[in-house]
Amino acid sequence: MRPAIFFLLLLFSFHHANAQFRLNASSSLDENETAYTGMSYEQKSQVRKLYQHNRGIILGYQRGVSNLIELGGEAHWRKMSLRKPRITGANINMEYDFINHVVGYKAGMWMKQGRINFTYGANLAYFTDFKGNHRYGINPAIGFRLAGFHLINGYNITTGDAELDEINTLYLSLRYYFPLENKFTWDRKTQRKIKQKRKEKEERREERRNRRNNGKEKEEEPKGLWNKVKEKFKKS
Description:
Elements: H1 2-13, H2 15-37, H3 41-45, E1 50-63, E2 68-80, E3 86-97, E4 102-113, E5 118-128, E6 134-146, E7 149-155, E8 157-160, E9 170-186, H4 188-235
Antiparallel strand pairs: 1-2, 1-9, 2-3, 3-4, 4-5, 5-6, 6-7, 6-8, 7-9
């Protein structure tokens, strides 16, 4: 029990920076929600949609028949919206049982929709005990995600060697997500508008540049003719 408490304290010490960022983003969305609800359908359709793509590492502790440590990577695609925010996550991770020396690999996806932090998803799973015994199958899971923490309740449906019976069939896992890279992009319609505005601005600059160049040529041309006339009079 002590390792689990120490692990939770370690995760909590890294939690504050990420939690503050999410709190600020949430408060800014709440401030604009009243204005959004008063818009017409056409106005709502013209509102810009902001998307966030981030990726990082996950560290977790799994409790079941056996206690496991989880380590892996995760990527998020977030639609930042006032009414219906959505997060889609993809993860690949490894879990290891230090007592029974069983390692498992999982790859899957999960989703969270709306303001409720309920998540649901599934994984493909593979387990081995390094003695020639293998099990593989699927892993449906539901959970609750808040401020970087992800509490997951999953069930491993596996087939394979019956001798490998140390894996957790039903388990509860607590993970923490450490973001390493964040990128923000607008929706495609807004991106096209931004590109079009940049193109029009560049065309206007090029047009003004050409006008200035043409004006200089016209100004220099009569000066050159006058100088030629002067030279002719001097010679005569």
